[in-house]
Amino acid sequence: MEIQITLPDGKKKTYPKGVTALDVAKDISEGLARNVLAAKVDGNVMDATLPINDDADITLLTWSDDEGKSTMWHSSAHLLAEALQHFYPGIKFAIGPPIENGFYYDVDLGNQQISDKDFAKIEQKMLELAREKNTYIRHEISKKDALDYYKKKGDEYKLELIDELEDGTISFYEQGGFTDLCRGPHIPNTGFIKAVKLTSIAGAYWRGDEKNKQLTRIYGITFPKQKELKEYLELLEEAQKRDHRKLGKEMGLFTFSQKVGMGLPLWLPKGAILRERLENFLKLAQKKAGYLPVITPHIGGKELYVTSGHYAKYGKDSFQPIHTPHEGEEYLLKPMNCPHHCELFNAEPRSYKDLPLRFAEFGTVYRYEQSGELHGLTRVRGFTQDDAHIFCTPEQVKEEFKKVIDLVLYIFKTLSFDNFIAQVSLRDPEDREKYIGSNENWRKAETAIKEAVEEAGLDFVVEEGEAAFYGPKLDFMVRDAIGRKWQLGTIQVDYNLPDRFELEYVGSDNSKHRPVMIHRAPFGSMERFVAVLIEHCAGKFPLWLMPDQVKILPVSDKFNKYAQEVLNKLNNYDIRALVDERSEKVGRKIRDAEVEKMPYMLIVGDEEASNGTVSVRKQGEGDQGTHTVDSFAELVNNEIEALLGN
RNA sequence: GCCGAUGUAGCUCAGGGGUAGAGCGCGUCCUUGGUAAGGACGAGGUCAUGGGUUCAAAUCCCAUCAUUGGCUCCA
């Protein structure tokens, strides 16, 4: 019996039935066969060593394929388990999947302890086992036998997993002296793993539920070449240099104080200037887009949040109410601006002619976050949202939504954020209880978002179960220096709050109607946005955002006076400059200015002072020749205008 | 909140049961310079906090606090 194998380039070849992907690879070239980690057969990733019995499309997966990498990391998790089993008798295994950068295994060590000091010996053992080139052998096994195996081992985690599997679909994988419940696929043998690095150790709850027992999670990563591990570690190191916490400190942008409280950032002058520029930039864009400014207080009466539904949902997990000393009133620190904005809408009778009504506010909100979750400026307890709420008719929703998408994209483009992910977050179809509002409204909102996103031509991913409890949303996600995903901009459709606050407008038919609300924040929060911006540009902000744009470097003390004259002139042009008056050589002043990422340096000495000029040096680019102060100012302002696209 | 790690000068970090260390930064003085580090001298620390062990603790032990890597959560 022969079968036909179709390769990705469309080439068809005939092989005897039962041929393996590895055989096919060997047929193509020995070199390829040495690099095949797994195979995709009719769209399913499987072991390269399994027989293929029917005509099939196959793709051979190597290290250059994401699926090849994750197969190897999955196999690496098994290898880690085998090594752990060697050192920690009685260890129980939970789950050990591949992840984006490597893999982990969750284990229950019983009374034994493990720490990162043990990593070296575990890594060595893994490499030793890898060198044995043990094959990963797949065993199809009956549910009963699977259960018996783990009953004997006393591993309740695997038993729980098997319990949920259907008989006939269960497989074990065995390599060397280790057998694990596993769907697969795996690499042919452990020999592909040439470099191993265990990266961290952490607690993780069994099945991700904090009510369950906490297991020990060991993270690691492996590579087929030692060199690649080295490169990866260097990359990590580079990324850490961009960490906004480090750069924020170095550049004097923000700080924290124990006395003020954890998760409550303090903006230093330079950071405040940066943030102010961002705010002004957005304010201008919003003004053009028809937003109206509003201002609301930092606290709100408890009833406000009872009405909005937030009290029932988050009351217990918020900063607790503030009580007035004599009247016994209760106020909450505002965790969001929308209830206040609803009351602004309600302040006057509204006509359909007023809609869409767009209320914008840089509103500072306070949310209780668990202490362990706080992180630099990306996860804080007090932050300022670039918030706005659009009140519109149901017919206007899609159009307004699209306009907001345009605004977000304009902002991202201006700041050259290009590698964001647009994520449409919908309800969890399994768990309707989590959400408030009618099915009808949810369906309307979800449809409006999907249509708006499609019409805007945006690439997006859909995540079920990620919606806010009151409505679906479109989030713009970006990654930070260490690869973590953060939500920046967000746009959310809400049919719920207008109901709860009984918002109404008079339609053209002279009867009352309920408006729809769109919550939106292009930056998300100023804190998080600045954090991501810092990491994105490694502290080299666009010129218009730089807290200090120009440093004037007198060649010697004798020219400090002329430097001050230049400074005054630049101030008149609204250029933020300062003078390096230290008694240092100009080479030193240049170096320091370069290191602190000063966009422009103006060297002034005898020649410049007598001609009323400056010698211009651009950060990272070097000498730009001599300019008059006026022409330099023009140059800077032109550059800024070009960046802002005005 | 839970599990792990860390906490020494303004910053980055070394050290380690018996006078507290380096580099950078900072200050003073010398030098007055031309496109990425001039020189000399100096100031700065109850070694996170509180207990314990010890003749003696920054060092060992315990607790607390903070920071940090994860987990859970995230309007």
What would you say this structure looks like, in words?
It is globular and about 85 Å long. It contains 20 helices and 36 strands. It is an alpha+beta fold and 646 residues long. The mean pLDDT is 92. 35% of the residues lie in helices and 27% in strands. The structure holds one RNA strand of 75 nucleotides.
Provide a brief overview of the structure.
This protein is an alpha+beta fold and 646 residues long. It is globular, with a radius of gyration of 31 Å. The relative contact order is 0.07.
CATH architecture of the largest domain: 2-Layer Sandwich
Total discrete domains: 5
Enter the CATH topology name of the largest domain. BirA Bifunctional Protein, domain 2
Sheet with most strands: 8 strands, mixed
Helix/sheet category: alpha+beta
Parts with pLDDT < 50 across at least 5 consecutive residues: none
Neighbour order of strands in the largest sheet: 18-23-24-31-28-27-25-26
Strand content: 25-35%
Range of helix content: 25-40%
CATH class of the largest domain: Alpha Beta
- Outline type: globular
Question: Total helix count?
Answer: 20
Overall pLDDT = 92
Cα-based radius of gyration, to the nearest Å: 31 Å
Task: Give me the CATH superfamily of the largest domain.
Answer: Bira Bifunctional Protein, Domain 2
**How many β strands by DSSP?**
36
